[in-house]
Amino acid sequence: MTKKNEITVKDIVIKTMTQNDIDYICITDIAKQKNIIDPNGVIGNWMRNRNTVEFLGIWETLHNPNFNPLEFEGFRKEAGLNAFTLSPTRWIEATNAIGILSQSGRYGGTFAQTDIAFEFASWISVEFRLYLVMEFQRLKAKEQELLGWTAKRELSKINYHIHTDAIKSHLIPHEITTAQASIIYAEEADVLNVAMFGMTAKQWRETHHDMKGNIRDYATINELICLSNMENINAVLINDGVPQRDRLVKLNQIAIQQMQVLEGKRSLKQLK
Questions:
Q1: Which residues contact 63 (CB under 8 A, 6 or more apart)?
Q2: How far is residue 255's CA from residue 46's CA, in Å, rounded to a whole number?
Q3: pLDDT tens, 31-45?
Q4: 3-class secondary structure, 3
Q5: Beta strand segments in 151-244, E
């Protein structure tokens, strides 16, 4: 799966791509900082440099088990000579390189793994490299934040059906209406909310008028892990016929114990 994105560095839009779990940055876009008309010429000048060839070869040796060292050695011996030229396509085809990719189409250009792209950016401008690193790190931080949000939302659903099935089987009489059943489901959800957060969903909304969503939308990943575990445990307690009040006390104790483990804290105040 290939994931594509963009960052803006000193008014230049630079494409990024993740492929086979490797992050790449478009060095064609970076080269526009030096020559907006002929960025490929800039890349060609950089690649004919002996230091560049050695850097690319060392990177591939460290990260690419299919790298062709014999072809690399040939390039290394010729690098720096007046007649020597080297294009990204020639480098890739001759050495089986993975650190540089050549993409065609609207999103095309020459892409380089981040270590290589940062090295190229330093050759262009040390200042530009610093801005590039800063913006790329900001992009990855946003991606991790989105990933964490997605994980939290998915985690909250893991044991949902186990929990609701236990409620349906043991707490909801067959003769009651759907509306009445919804109240019982909400009450059991609040058993977990009180055990974990110390308040019901309604109490949270009444004290957080300016916040959208519900109490679980603002839970940490550790709190959601704990809630997911508690849904399973509450289902077991319901199946065993444990009264709601006793289940709440037990779940509160479990929440405290699990949060101590997850957050590495020796003490955690009793949730009320």
A1: 98, 99, 113
A2: 58
A3: 999 999 999 999 999
A4: strand
A5: none
